[in-house]
Amino acid sequence: MYQSDDERTDRGDTTERPPLVAAMRECLAPLRLSDVFEPAVEHVLRGTRPEVLATLRAQPHGAEAVAGPDGYWSTRLADAVAGLHPGWTRPGADAARRTVYGTAPVDVLARFGQLLHAASGRAPEQAQPSWLLVLADDVARASDADDTDADDTDADDTDDTDADDTDADGAESGRRWSPDVLMEVARAGDAPGRSVVHATLTALLHADNSYPAHRRRRLLETDAGVAFLARYADELAAVAPGLEFYVRKYVALACARSPEAHAGLAAELAVDADGGVRADALAALSRLDGPGQVAVLRQHLRTASPDRLLDALARLADLDGGAVAIEETLADGDGDGGPLGPERERLLRRVVFRVRVLRSVETAVPAPPVAMPHDADLAEELRALRTLRPGSGPEVDRTWSIAESRVTRLPDVRALRDVRRAAGAADADRWTAGLLVTCTTSRYRKIGAVLTPQDAERWWPLFAERPDLADEYLDGGDGKRHPDQYAVDTRTMILTILERFPAVPEALVPRLTALALGANRHRLSARRVLGDHPGARAAALDALVGLDDTARSSAAEWLADLGEPEVVGPEPGWEFGAGVLHPSARTLPASTLWWLDRFREQALDQGIPTDDVDRWLGLARPTLRTAADGGGPVVGRLGSPLMLPPDMPTPAATYDHYDPDDPYEYQLIVTLDLAAIPPGATDLPLPPDGHVLLFANIELEDVLLPGGAVYVPAGTPVEEREVSLDYEPYGYDSPEALDEDLRHTGDLRLVPGVSLPSCALDDETRAEHPHARALQEVWSEQSDEGGRWQLGGYAYDFDGYGDPARASAVPEPGEMFSRPEDGAVLAQWVGVPMGILYWTINRQDLQARRFDRVVVQMFANP
After folding, report:
1. Which stretches does the entry tag as region Disordered (predicted)?
2. What are 577-608's pLDDT values in tens digits?
């Protein structure tokens, strides 16, 4: 029986304490700092003095050290504990915990877990076995602890003689603990839950900011843990759906360890609300044979929400008997003699069409033989994969995961597909096609999000053999599995691939024609895929005289491009509706308006009202910008030489304390050829010809930079001017190094672009656009990673610094007040590390050609 120090003194007892009692006292020694030590030890060992738990929840001194033994401790606190409990050290306390966890009866362990929970200051929870998960966390922590714990203590506190005992205790506690032992502790402590199994599963799986789960889950990843989950598969199926999505994702992965036992749960998670959970659940189901998968998935055909059913339908389409199961569901209706519902029926019929029609030999487009990689090492790596069946173990899965990253190096992705087939995977085609929306490039963009026509060469033969997979991607969707991931416009992606086909699959012609006659951005790519297909052209001619206004306008646009006699195309921007776009934006080419259409689609998908989206679109303005591929006509030259009229002084600043004959000269950044800028290409009232020279001394001392702009009218004689630059440019060793970098970049080439506000708005604009912030966030994702240079339009938002154009809207003394919207961005350049340069000017000054009023600013966050 446990005796306190007072009781032992009264009885004159000098015998050595039992190991468990001594270990418990060592664990709880920090509570000596607040005089609750003896009641705490007594409660844990005897089950008496339960009132000590309430005392501990008030977190008396030392409680936090018991609750978090691996947290930060001051040397002063550790010394104070050792002074009250001679011989105490932090490593010794951890060794004592391992003794407790290796030898204590389950009722003692339950009370110890409840005490740890109370010492953390958390209130008791009726519906959550939080004390149990706190205990499980600490068991895993203590079992992993080793001599590195001594790093938090002084060297004098380290006792090397305990090392062997510490290792032995850790091994013993690690061998003892399993989910079954935790369940016995839960039973002894009457942990809350529908059952003791439910409480144990909840404690092992639950995760949030207060209770990270990675330590506890180790108990589930042992052989004993896998067996425990399989034994209580029904309870797991009852617990899992109510957990957070990231926990359900973990459960889906756990199902793969015993797929037969968890087939029902995996099938349930295969129609989960979260796409990542669905993917992992289907991966777990793939370890069953085909009939087994069909048996558990077909139940969802009538009941699962249509938007969650797509992944399961795709799997059924690839399984023998899957199409039959879908056809039987279509024939039987809802099972009670009623219809399935129009959306569900459409989905199911589309899958049957893909399997029965698009997957037929007659539908496939002839493709060349599979091209193997020229890289000998890569070819050898592929050969080695043939012996590794996907899903046969974590190490194999990791190897295949590495292989995914090689796909961008293959001249033909079917080479990887064939290896996966040879390894015994039934989903080789779909898995390979899915890499477009699951695998990322070296810049962490999904492959399909940045697919170019040149990249499409490696992909088109796969889809030529499997046009049904191409049809699936034509459904659209962004392929996102997580909000932080870049979206993939799968329809644009697959149309880019279909453009590489030598001939359009006839079975896809009706669907592509419907896209080509629509109003959204995909009509342009669909038309390129169809080319001059006679059936598509006939459909366009029919639409030209039909009753649908949108189809008529689209057909006229298409046929006019094809050179159809006497057909006149609609006004540019027609697809957005009358009066939506500003007149300056309506003249932009359709390939540029593509971005606004994508923006509108994504904004509407987020639930922003149509009227609010259209009002925001009315703010769109044309710009010129650099393209991601470096293309576009030349509109300027970067860097020197500086060409000025002979009588024009070199742009410079003269300060009072400087000699007027030794000015602070500005560095030339770019010379713009205004004659190369077509009228209406920007929203700026620029002169029709001549040159504008932009200067800036890129210093990191202030937002306002020394610099400005000079306008040289057309026909003005100029000569090369030597300059003497004396400053240290940010990001470069010298002004000469900056100029060399500019000249090395070469000509400035710009293409048409479109711009929407991205900086913080004034009160008036916010009142007019209540969804402005959400709309700005959507627009921020519309990027092809070009835009290093921009002329006109709105300023890029940089770290919330604000709109630089407003600095140009401030009038000089004696002038009339200018409105904030009068400020304009003449040019902006993402040209320094973590920063942007802006040349801004008042619009009235620009019309008056007062380029001497240009303001140069730099926002940077080095």
Report:
1. 143-176
2. 988 999 999 989 888 998 999 999 989 988 99
CA 461 – CA 463 distance, rounded (Å): 5
pLDDT at 656: 52
pLDDT at residue 649, rounded to an integer? 93
Tokens of 68: 């978090």
Do residues 834 and 862 lie in contact, with contact meaning Cβ atoms separated by under 8 Å? Answer: yes
Burial 680-695 (b: 16+ CB within 10 A, else e): ebbbbebbeebbbbbb
Torsion of CA 598, 601, 607, 611, to 10 degrees: 100
CA dist., res. 196 & res. 129, Å (int): 10
714: tokens are 């057309």
Strand (E) or helix (H) holding 615: helix 610-617
Question: Cβ distance 370 to 410 under 8 Å?
Answer: no
| Single-letter code of the amino acid located at 196 | V
Q: Which amino acid is at 215?
A: R
543 touches 555 (CB < 8 A): yes
- Using CA atoms, how far apart are residues 636 and 789, in angstroms rounded to an integer? 11
- The DSSP line for 621-667 is EEEEE--TTS-S-EEEEES--EEE-TTSPPPEE--TTS-TTS-EEPP
Would you state the structure tokens that stand for residue 836, as one six-digit string? 């942007």
Beta-ladder partners of 837: 829, 858
- Written as one letter, the residue type at 380 is E
Secondary structure class of 145 (helix, strand, coil): coil
> In angstroms, rounded to a whole number, what is the distance separating the alpha carbons of residues 644 and 30?
79
DSSP bridge pairs for 440: 446
Encode burial over 139-161: b for 16+ CB neighbours within 10 A, e otherwise: bbbbbebeeebbebbeeebbeee
DSSP H or E segment with residue 836: strand 835-842
Peptide bond into 641 cis (omega under 30): yes
Q: Rg of the Cα trace of the chain?
A: 35
- CA distances to 474, 543, 556, 561, 594 from 540, rounded to whole Å, are 20, 5, 8, 12, 21
Spatial contact of 759 and 652, defined as CB atoms under 8 Å apart: no
Q: Are 673 and 748 within 8 A, CB to CB?
A: no
Instruction: Render pLDDT for 676-714 as a digit per residue (tens, 0 to 9).
Output: 999 999 999 999 999 999 999 999 888 889 999 999 999
Tokens coding 523: 């009509």
Domain ranges of the chain: 1-177, 289-353, 376-498, 634-749
CA end-to-end span of the chain = 66
pLDDT in tens, 342-376: 999 999 999 999 999 999 878 788 999 999 999 99
Planar angle of CA 75, 78, 81, nearest 5 degrees: 150
In this predicted model, which residue has the larger pLDDT, 838 or 334?
A: 838
| pLDDT value of position 763 | 82
- Three-state SS for 727? coil
**In this structure, what token pair is assigned to residue 166?**
């510490």
**Distance set, CA 96 to CA 99, 111, 233, 327, 479 (Å):** 5, 16, 36, 65, 51
**How many angstroms separate the CA atoms of 228 and 247, rounded?**
18
d(CA 782, CA 468): 29
Rounded average pLDDT over 541-567: 93
Instruction: For the beta carbon of residue 482, count every other beta carbon within 10 angstroms.
Output: 10
pLDDT of 164-206, one tens digit each? 444 454 455 567 899 999 999 999 999 988 899 999 999 999 8
Residue appearing with tokens 């990322």: 440
Q: Is 538 exposed, middle or buried (0-12, 13-18, 19+ CB in 10 A)?
A: exposed
Asked if residues 842 and 809 have their Cβ atoms less than 8 Å apart, the reply is yes
CA distance 362 to 450: 32
How confident is residue 660, by pLDDT bands cut at 50, 70 and 90?
A: low
Specify the 3-state DSSP secondary structure of 705.
Answer: coil
| Three-class secondary structure of residue 179 per DSSP | helix
The single residue listed with the structure tokens 């029926």 is: 345
pLDDT at 511: 95
Output the pTM of the full model.
0.76
Q: Which residues pair with 208 in a beta bridge?
A: none
